[in-house]
Amino acid sequence: MFIVSEMKLTDEQRDRYSRMLALRDFSENDMETVMNTTVALIGAGGLGSPSLRLLTAVGFGRIRIIDRDIVELSNIQRQTVFNTKDIGMPKAEAAAANLNLMNPEVSFDPICVSISEENSIDVLKGADIIIDGLDSFKARRAVNRASLALGIPYVFAGAVEYYANLTTFIPGETGCLQCVMGDAKDNPENTCALVGVSPMLLSLAASVQVNEVLNLALGREPALVNRLMTIDSNTLNFDFFDIGKASDCEVCSAPVKYTPSGTNELRVTQLCSQSFNIAPEKMMSLDLESLASKLETRYSVKRMKRFLVVETPSEIKITIMPAGNLVVKGVSNADEATKLFHDIIAESN
Q1: In the sheet that 129-132 helps form, which strands lie side by side, from edge to edge?
Q2: I want to staple 328 with a disulfide (CB 3.0 to 4.6 A). Which of 198, 199, 230, 337 is the partner?
Q3: Which one of 2.30.30.40, 3.40.640.10, 3.40.50.720, 3.40.190.10 gives the CATH number of domain 37-242?
């Protein structure tokens, strides 16, 4: 899976990664393998942030950061990849910029999209390993299908309050997310915004995830293959349960042909911050410079390198990403947010 070139570590790289190289079972060849591995992390939030820091510190060569949201003040308490100055920035962009300061040896690919059945294969193809930082079963199911279609291992985790679940799915070797979770749905009464989430839990879970990623990259048996790990960080209880492939799973065992809706409808989601994320079913490629020039006739527009921040006279803030994702803050309902999306996208045509 992972092709190691004839690259050799430089003296600076040996110094940077010296404590990894000092481990009794980690060689320079292992480090070179890690540096040739592409990891796709979906969701740069509570789980994704500590995972990103560890992936960057370890030295994975390319990290694709996929997130649809912008940084809010309430994020900083647990999403440790961000700083206060990042408030208002797209999370993927802010994370990439901050992590580059930490380790310029790593290449970062920030993608500001809302992952879905329609775009998941395009967003994830080319990755060697997928790591889960999501908080939605709908998004995870899209990732699960893409993982199977592309043959990419998927390191799953979910966390809320003091509790986390983790496992590793390897297409063709283990079951999949559907085998374990079935038709589980998100519980609107059990979200981080309502019941909270412990930063210590997130760091514990992220450490386990990155350890699984490292084992996968090095061709070693991950500890959570066919096992579900549960963590209770309040009592420091760690339990393991055997899991397997469901013989009647419609996704991996007896797959039923699945066709995305193809309706090209907008996906509108209210975020924990009470902002609205609006995403087209298919990724767009907006000319932000041209769009900014048109919008400036009606709104205040702040041009950033890879996104725009627009403020209306009624103090509604709209962050526009090149793939067509918008985050709208200051409206009271999805209809208002959707109308703004249509008004702005009309200007791009």
Answers
A1: 107-111, 62-66, 38-42, 129-132, 154-160, 163-169, 227-232, 237-242
A2: 337
A3: 3.40.50.720
Query: What average pLDDT values come out for the chain (349 residues) when binned by 10 residues?
Result: 67 97 96 98 96 98 96 92 95 97 97 92 97 93 96 96 97 96 83 86 97 98 97 97 94 75 74 85 89 93 92 93 92 92 84
pTM of the model: 0.91
For 72, the token pair is 């809010």
Strand 163-169, strand 227-232: pairing? antiparallel
In the structure encoding, which two tokens stand for residue 312, read together? Answer: 């209306």
Q: Hey, is 298 helix, strand or coil?
A: coil
Q: By the 8 A CB rule, do 318 and 309 touch? A: yes
- Other C-beta atoms closer than 10 Å to the C-beta of 63 total 25
Sequence spans of domains, the chain: 37-242, 267-348
3-class SS of residue 324: coil
Collapse the DSSP code of 326 into the 3-class scheme (helix H, G, I; strand E, B; otherwise coil) and give the result.
Answer: strand
Residue pair 153/130 in contact (Cβ under 8 Å)? The answer is: yes
Q: How far is CA 333 from the centre of its chain?
A: 26
DSSP 240-285: EEE----TT-TTTTSPPP---------EEEE-TTS-EEEE-SS---
Q: In CATH, which of 3.90.1150.10, 3.40.50.2300, 3.40.640.10, 3.30.310.10 is domain 267-348?
A: 3.30.310.10
- List the Cα angle 22/59/305 in 5-degree steps: 155
Q: What are phi and psi of 113, to 5 degrees?
A: -140, 165
